[in-house]
Amino acid sequence: MKKYGIRPVGWVFDDDWYNYDGEYEIEELFSTREEAEKRIDEHNQKILLSGWVFTSRSFQLTYSQAEPDFVFVGKSELGKKLAEILEIEEERVYNPKSGFTREMTDTYVKQLSPKQITSALTELGLSFYKLVSFESETQAFYYHFRRNKKLWLKHFDETYHYTEDDYLSFRDDRPMEGNRIALTKKECYYFAVNDPYDPISRQLATFDLLTGSLEELSDTPDLLKSVISNAEHIHYNADKRLIEFDHKVSHESLMALDQVLKEPLIILEKIKLE
Fold this sequence. Notes:
Elements: E1 3-8, E2 11-12, E3 28-30, H1 33-50, E4 59-60, E5 72-73, H2 75-86, E6 94-95, E7 99-100, H3 103-108, H4 114-123, E8 129-134, E9 141-147, H5 149-152, H6 158-161, H7 164-168, E10 181-182, H8 185-193, H9 200-204, H10 214-217, H11 221-230, E11 234-237, E12 242-245, H12 251-258, E13 266-272
Antiparallel strand pairs: 1-3, 1-8, 2-4, 4-5, 6-7, 9-10, 9-13, 11-12
Helix pairs in contact: 1-4, 2-4, 8-12
């Protein structure tokens, strides 16, 4: 039986507090899509009623977890849409010079139903929560992902990373316990490649991690050779017996490579959702 989850994906943009979609835990699980969608509607309404979104910057759109995200929705666009639904003059909702009016939350938003609010956000391509579906309860999990210590630990520098766990993990600027998390394997590799502090792509271009013959590196050496041949910015140096990387290597190429290595670059651990 399918399971449906919801997770936060939209926030007010702040370049001092930037986080990618995909690293937030599932907030709730539901047995039906209707239950999950209803809770998203309620959350969207609660966020607008709180008023904090009306005193900050533009809204960051975060749909594609494994692609760059540079799309924003301006406050004026939201004000115009809400005024349209309320059938009142835009100036009563949003002033280009001073922003949203005090009556925005005190009066006008309270007149909108949760479904109306979600409808307005949807038309703008914005939501503060996202619906995620799982084919069954056994597939309701997310991933923790870390560098494979068998390959990476020899490059650990305690003066820079402090602890081995800090070095092997992928973290961000938001307070978290443990590693980053993701819902798909592709997300894991995307975050590893695009880590704002220690991107794996830069390290791969510097360190010698995968040394040995193709037979030593993989149980399927012919398949490994094929993966390397078809991947951009990855090649095998036969003289050095070394898989070499360019700093432009993509997360898709690394994910494909890891599938055929005896010792993958990234270790993924499934964490069951409750």
